[in-house]
Amino acid sequence: MNKSSARAFCCGMIVTALGTLINFFAISNAGNEALLFGCLIGWTTSILIYSLSVAYYGIMESRGLDHDKE
Predict the structure, then answer these.
(1) CB of 42 within 8 A of CB of 16?
(2) 33 lies in some domain
(3) Which pLDDT score is estimated for 63?
(4) Residue 27 is part of which domain span?
């Protein structure tokens, strides 16, 4: 569960930064619009990554295929 949370947080922050910078410099939106867009896609990405990661590890654990090397 901790690995899923960490993965989702890191991916969400990277997507937030990239989305904000691309929206600000390439599309030339105002700063507040670019930041709002970046936060929106970053938050959405982190929720998607977290839910897929938890589902993956849950399915693997229920089948007895535990290969999580920690």
Answers:
(1) yes
(2) yes
(3) 79
(4) 2-62
